[in-house]
Amino acid sequence: MRASSYFKSLAVAASFALIAGCSSTGGTQDGSLDGAGGMGGGGADGSGVSGSGVSGQGMNGYGQQDAGRGQQDGSQSGIPQVRTIYFDYDRDTIRSEFEPVLNAHAQYLQGHPNTKVVLQGHTDERGTREYNLGLGERRANAVVRFMTVQGVPSSQMEVVSYGEERPAVRGGNEESYAQNRRVVFDY
């Protein structure tokens, strides 16, 4: 009788431990739209990165959407407000109109050597999943190269590619595609 009560208590405790363990893993931490993980520098395990995503988007000075948690809570003052740059179809070349944006981020990172940024590469939905993961990574790495030339240590930057998995806008027209071909600075 006493042993039975002990085993019941042990079974309940093990159940709670199992539930607690399951609740801390198995999904993205940023509330992504579809729960798909990323691939690249830190997200190769499919879990993505923390504090990122397309939620909380606003409009930037270019009339396009940008994302980032810091814009919402105001706790990261000094970080350039424009945190998204866009790319042409099937390209990883940085457009000249976004060079001032990258320079502003480079200056911020140089002035804050303990700050790190995750560069999230995205693509539109055209192409295979594997191709788009590669293209998103190439876009983010293009930003890393630009920032490195500006003097930002590579240790302050991390690359994650989400490919087509986390679209900023859903839709099958060119306007939607253009908003999904991007790199997001996530501080």
TrEMBL record:
It is found in: Cell outer membrane. Residues 74-187 form the OmpA-like domain. Residues 1-20 form the signal peptide. It comes from the Bacteria. Residues 62-78 have a biased composition (Low complexity). Keywords: Cell cycle, Cell division, Cell outer membrane, Lipoprotein, Membrane, Palmitate, Signal. The keyword Metal-binding does not apply. One of its GO terms (biological process) is cell division. It is a lipid-anchor. The keyword Transcription does not apply. Residues 33-81 are annotated as: Disordered. Residues 34-61 have a biased composition (Gly residues). InterPro entries: Bact_OuterMem_StrucFunc (IPR050330), OMP_bac (IPR006664), OmpA-like (IPR006665), OMPA-like_CS (IPR006690), OmpA-like_sf (IPR036737), Pal (IPR039001), Pal_lipo_C (IPR014169). GO terms for cellular component: cell outer membrane. HAMAP family: Pal. Part of the Tol-Pal system, which plays a role in outer membrane invagination during cell division and is important for maintaining outer membrane integrity. Belongs to the Pal lipoprotein family. The Tol-Pal system is composed of five core proteins: the inner membrane proteins TolA, TolQ and TolR, the periplasmic protein TolB and the outer membrane protein Pal. They form a network linking the inner and outer membranes and the peptidoglycan layer. This is Peptidoglycan-associated lipoprotein. It comes from Pistricoccus aurantiacus.
